[in-house]
Amino acid sequence: MTLSQQEISKPNYFVESEQILHYGIEQEIMQLFNTPSQSTSVEKNMDELVDNLCDSFLIANNANTDIDLNSLKNQFYDSEIPEKPADIKKYIEYLSNNVIDHSIHTSSPRFIGHMTSALPYFVRPIAKLMTAMNQNAVKIETAKALSFYERQALAMMHRQIYNFSDRFYEKHIQNSQSTLGILVSGGTTANIAALWCARNAALGAKDGFSGVEKEGLTAALNNYGYKGAVIIGSELMHYSFDKAADLLGIGLRSLIKVPTDSNNRVNLRSLRQAVVECQDQNLCIIAIAGIAGTTDSGGVDSLLDIAEIAHEANVHFHVDAAWGGPLVFSKQHRHKLAGIELADSITIDGHKQLYLPIGIGMVFMREPHTAKAIEKQASYTMRKGSFDLGKRALEGSRPGMALFLHAGLNLIGTKGYEFLIDEGIRKTQYLANRICAMPEFELLAEPDTNLVIYRYVPEQFRELVAQQKLTEIDNLFISEFNQNLQKLQRQAGRTFISRTTKTTNCMGKEIPIIALRAVLANPLTTENDIDAVLNDQIQIASEVSVS
Amino acid sequence: MTLSQQEISKPNYFVESEQILHYGIEQEIMQLFNTPSQSTSVEKNMDELVDNLCDSFLIANNANTDIDLNSLKNQFYDSEIPEKPADIKKYIEYLSNNVIDHSIHTSSPRFIGHMTSALPYFVRPIAKLMTAMNQNAVKIETAKALSFYERQALAMMHRQIYNFSDRFYEKHIQNSQSTLGILVSGGTTANIAALWCARNAALGAKDGFSGVEKEGLTAALNNYGYKGAVIIGSELMHYSFDKAADLLGIGLRSLIKVPTDSNNRVNLRSLRQAVVECQDQNLCIIAIAGIAGTTDSGGVDSLLDIAEIAHEANVHFHVDAAWGGPLVFSKQHRHKLAGIELADSITIDGHKQLYLPIGIGMVFMREPHTAKAIEKQASYTMRKGSFDLGKRALEGSRPGMALFLHAGLNLIGTKGYEFLIDEGIRKTQYLANRICAMPEFELLAEPDTNLVIYRYVPEQFRELVAQQKLTEIDNLFISEFNQNLQKLQRQAGRTFISRTTKTTNCMGKEIPIIALRAVLANPLTTENDIDAVLNDQIQIASEVSVS
Hints:
Two copies of one chain form a homodimer. By secondary structure, chain A is an alpha/beta fold.
């Protein structure tokens, strides 16, 4: 071990402390902490091994191997931590054979079933850089420049959505009392944080009452004379709203799920009715939520109408744009989000249509003081008036994920994101057209953005589908068929489509059916890949049996 | 662009779709999504640039540059996203000059003020691998082998703490109905998740009542006949308990903060009294929390006693061992955690004393069904009976951070972690001894683990300190002195110590004083570095002025 740079820093454990000699691995452990230049051979060797693994992983075209889950899980039963450090080469070999080989090729052009995609190459070196820098974004003392850099990246996205004046951004972008956005670990924490702010504001301190934050929910409802508190949104709200309703203490029953129309958008009449009913029942409406790209089907609610309803009711308007938010980059498609600029808070996921790694959720606030409702302090950090980003956040210690966001916005640019969004939607139209043209499939909803909901129709039902004469029993059979088809396709591993449940009208009755779900976001996916996925399903359909 | 591997996948945007020609950057954007081998020059070039940046960043010995925050923030005022993709080389140059150069050298041996450290080299290539694999741990369909691998890594830590039988681990390690631990983004989310489970269990479904999860907090308290709900722990509980009390709807007032003794451990008599008082007032005690390593001072509560108190009261016992958990690896020091194995839930941070990157929190459950209390489902994922890890979690989409945890446990091993823990505590003793031996400093508490709380004493007060005759005014002066000393030291950037507030007895009265706070966890920190930090403080003290 050489620490030539500064002789004074040379570790001296081995001469000074007798007590530790029984480990026998001191030197080995200390070498792990060498900087790259101090251990050229070790770290560079591992770099090369890992680069090769990345390379062969990323080039794969299939969705995954065909090993079944039961055989796979048998490889992970050992629960002992080894006493001595494992050999690095052997560990990487183990990793390669047991984990990497049986991981999902989320970047494959034929894995079009979930909201994952190939990522731009620059995220890989940046991941290494972020880990080497090891900044903790919770406070300025462990993230000096990064704190301002993160604020900047969030302000850039804020501006892209809300488009306020130069003066507004100049005033708030680096103002420690302003919060234009919060970087969180994902869309779920973003939605929770937004609804947390909304609850604390709706039941805040007033006239000698210290607010729900300090006094708790029961006291707050009593103080304001409410019988309960609710959150209202479409029945297609993401499961994170369930988590939020549970966490925030209002309970799942108080998450009011309004029916959607056949286009997967919330029914506005029902929504208005729900608001009136809650008001009549003297319930505190914490927030009304709109969805910009449901996880189920990509549907976008009529945000402008919901904004109006929320405004009239004087209620916090939250938009879950985890998926659809980046449509703001597209001249062709941003009209679908009209009204998003009226939202009090907006969730966007960086790891979805901003093409960044998983772990970047964002919540944006129209008003820079909204997040004050959740502010906390501690004596060793997050002091009042400081630039510590942890003051207004759900999380505490946080990595420097802003590096990905800032790099993405700069290295892809508005035109680049526009191209990516437009391409995804163009390919979605291609898939929808193919489905309509092929007798084997039935399109279940006109796609709003870049998700397609459809199903395979076994031959004996095709005539009935065309005549809209399927019975509930027929639908049950077709659902089981599609469920089995999806499982077999996943198991085979050549291509991948996910599945979901959709409500459909069957002879005047609303019934749940199983739908196949395609997500078209991967820039590497071509029309040929789409054809290949459909053809794979047709081939697999011949093997499907229904009990 | 060559996509030799499979001709069928060659993107054909440029010939087929006229509509997109106006972007003018299609090819540039598509090239970003090439795999490493398809773009050798581009990605390899960036790899090299980034490797050099990492290298010079990691070799730095000072804490940070001496640029002041106001000048620094002026560099981050632009809020426009560029239209065209930026040049990668120029962007990295920008990153280097504006962000990396003014980031905190958390790995510096003389940055001993926060819970950050140098990290083992293998985390850097693994970061790249994790990002390339882009698994989403929320569900098996986007994280096949990784789901089982994560369960295994968590079970290994569970076993290290609870040490149940082989049979126990065989039964639960890969059982989709069992949860031995949840991987979360950090200690804050771990504490929130644990207390969420505790609240939902304490006020669960019973005798026709559907439980707090569905009915909400007010209805649950009513149903059970409680007047309120509380969480009880020491006054030194991490600020995440404040967030949890707020989020969960009980309010900050219902987070009962019990005084600590001079050794920073919760006063057991006061704790018992608090429990009795809550019972007498008919309050539901959701959880009693013990701390294994307070963020303030590293103090460890008497966990065995708290376990007994919680057991007698039939209340969920949670241990926040975010910092101190890894003491279980040390034969010399694990006795300090005696009783942790009785905890119903335990928080441990991977990015603290497991020497892994930021973003790895963990909560372990003694009983494999505890986390069922927060289970959620969705139609497109997290189905009942599935191996989808998102079923029982606070977060939704999550990166494959298990790669770091599993690698750490294997590549460092129990002996390696034992060495790291023992070394940190040995160096802490060295620092405490030096402080006691130097007239310039006053040790403020005997360290329990590897945090040292002390302060600089200006010359005119040294005699009074020795005689324990400081007045409140004297203490006020010394506090301001230390606050300014810490700020100047941070600003100078050569070395770093943080500060906190501590309660002390001053002539029979409890008063708050400002304390310097050292954290000794970095394996690269030597006794020479410790001396250098103290000497730097003595030098800076000569420049401190008090208003």
